[in-house]
Design a protein that fits this description.
Length: about 375
C-alpha cells in the first residue's frame, strides 16, 4: 500500500556503481583519534551509533572512518548492522567502510537501501564461511540492485527520515528513563552517596558481593529432557537492558550446558565494558562467558540482585579485574571481593517497587519504539524492495 512509485524507470546497478569501499588501514597505537567502533557497538536495524570504545583498548589493524561514512558489518551479515558514522575514528576490520557515489545515488539514500531486505538477503547469500560467514568486497561489488532516479531517491529518503526522527525522539525518552534508573542504582549502592533524595535515610552496610551472592556453576547435559528449551548467549544480553528479549532454541543445536533458573541474574563476564546483565524470567542454559548469580543471604532480596550488578561501580570493577587482550574476561573470585553498600530489607523492598514501576515505563517506551521501527521496515521494503 506504500508503493506509490512507478518502478518501470528504475535501473539495476552494480553495487560498485553506487558505492565505493574505502580500506585505509590504521594501527590503533598510531591514530590520533579517540573513537573505536567494533561490531559489538552496532545495533541491528539502526543507523545510529550509540556507544563506542577507545583505540587504546584494542589491538590489530583497523579501518579509518570519516564522518558520513557507512560502516557495514560484513561479518555475520544476518545481524543486519549498518550505521552512518557521525564522527571520525577507526572501526573493526570485520566491517566494511563504504561511501556513496553521488553521481548515481543520493548519499542519504544508500544507508536505507542497505537496510532493505533485498540488500540484506543478498548479503547473507554471498557470505562465505561457516562459523563466521563474511562478505568480500569483490563479491558484493558486482551484485545488482534496483535503484530509482535520484529525485525519487530523495523523496524516499525524506519519508524514511521523518520516521527516523520519531524513533529518535522515543529513544531519547528511553535514554532519559535509563539515566534516571542508573542514577538511583549508583546513588544507592556506591560509596559516599547520600540517597535521601530517593528514599528516606536509613542504615546501610558495606559488604562484599560474595558474602550475599553465590556463583551458580551447574551443568545440564540433557536440557530438553528436563523441559528446558531455551539458551542464552552473550548476543542475547542487551546492554543496559535488565530484561531478556531474545534467546536461542536448544532444539536447533547448541554446545552450551551451564544451567540457570528463573529469578537468577545473568552477567556477561567477557568484555564487561559492554554492560550486559539481566534477570532470568525462565529456566535455561547459557554460555560459559555468562556468570549466573543467586542471592544467598537473608540480607539481600533476590529481586534487587540484578540492579546491584547494573551498578556502574560493579561494571568498572569487572573491567579492571578482567584479563586478556582480544577478549578480556573477569572471574568470579575477583567479583566476589567487590564491596558495595546494602540498605536494610524494608528499603530494599521500597526500591524494588520503584524499579518495577520504572521497568514497566521503560518497557512501554520500548514497545512504542519497536512499533515505529516495524513501520519503518515495512515502508522501506515496500518502497525499495
Amino acid at each position: 500500500m506504500f508503493n506509490v512509485f512507478d518502478k518501470s524507470n528504475w535501473e539495476k546497478l552494480q553495487f560498485k556503481e553506487i558505492a565505493e569501499c574505502v580500506s585505509i588501514r590504521v594501527e590503533p597505537y598510531e591514530t590520533d583519534c579517540d573513537i573505536y567502533v567494533g561490531l559489538e557497538h552496532l545495533d541491528p536495524d539502526s543507523l545510529k551509533i550509540r556507544r563506542y570504545g577507545k583505540p587504546q583498548d584494542v589491538k590489530g589493524t583497523k579501518l579509518k572512518v570519516q564522518k558520513g561514512d557507512i560502516i557495514f558489518g560484513r561479518r555475520r551479515a544476518y545481524q543486519r548492522k549498518v550505521v552512518v558514522a557521525d564522527f571520525g575514528g577507526i572501526c573493526s576490520a570485520h566491517a566494511m567502510v563504504l561511501r556513496a557515489k553521488p553521481q548515481n545515488v543520493f548519499p542519504n539514500f544508500l544507508p536505507y537501501l542497505m537496510q532493505s531486505d533485498t540488500f540484506m538477503n543478498c548479503a547473507v547469500q554471498i557470505s562465505e564461511g561457516s562459523l563466521s560467514p563474511t562478505i568480500k568486497w569483490k563479491t558484493l561489488a558486482i551484485q545488482k540492485f534496483l535503484c530509482p532516479p535520484k529525485e525519487e531517491q530523495k523523496l524516499i529518503t525524506d519519508m524514511l527520515h521523518k520516521i527516523e526522527n520519531a524513533i529518535e525522539q522515543t529513544e531519547q525518552q528511553e535514554q532519559a528513563l535509563l539515566e534516571y534508573r542508573k542514577g538511583i542504582i549508583n546513588c544507592i549502592f556506591n560509596q559516599n552517596k547520600d540517597f535521601g533524595r530517593v528514599l528516606p535515610k536509613t542504615n546501610k552496610t558495606k559488604i562484599q558481593f560474595g558474602k550475599v551472592v553465590v556463583n551458580m556453576n551447574q551443568s545440564e547435559r540433557n536440557p530438553l529432557e528436563q523441559g528446558i528449551t531455551r539458551f542464552i548467549g552473550l548476543e542475547h544480553l542487551e546492554p543496559e537492558n535488565i530484561r531478556l528479549k531474545s534467546w536461542g532454541n536448544i532444539a536447533d543445536g547448541t554446545t552450551f550446558t551451564k544451567l540457570f533458573r528463573k529469578g537468577q541474574a545473568l552477567f556477561g563476564k567477557r568484555r564487561a565494558y559492554l554492560k550486559k546483565a539481566a534477570i532470568a524470567d525462565f529456566d535455561g542454559i547459557c554460555s560459559g562467558d555468562i556468570l549466573v548469580f543467586e542471592a544467598k543471604s537473608e540480607k539481600l532480596l533476590p529481586e534487587l540482585l540484578p540492579y546491584i550488578v547494573q551498578n556502574d561501580a560493579f561494571f568498572q570493577y569487572a573491567v579492571t579485574t578482567s584479563a586478556g587482550s582480544l577478549s578480556p574476561r573477569t572471574k568470579w573470585k575477583d567479583l566476589a571481593n567487590f564491596a558495595f553498600y546494602l540498605p536494610e530489607i524494608q528499603i530494599q523492598q521500597n526500591l524494588i517497587d520503584i524499579f518495577n514501576t520504572l521497568e514497566n515505563t521503560i518497557e512501554q517506551t520500548r514497545h512504542h519504539k519497536a512499533t515505529l521501527i516495524a513501520f519503518k521496515k515495512g515502508l522501506l521494503n515496500e518502497l525499495i524492495g
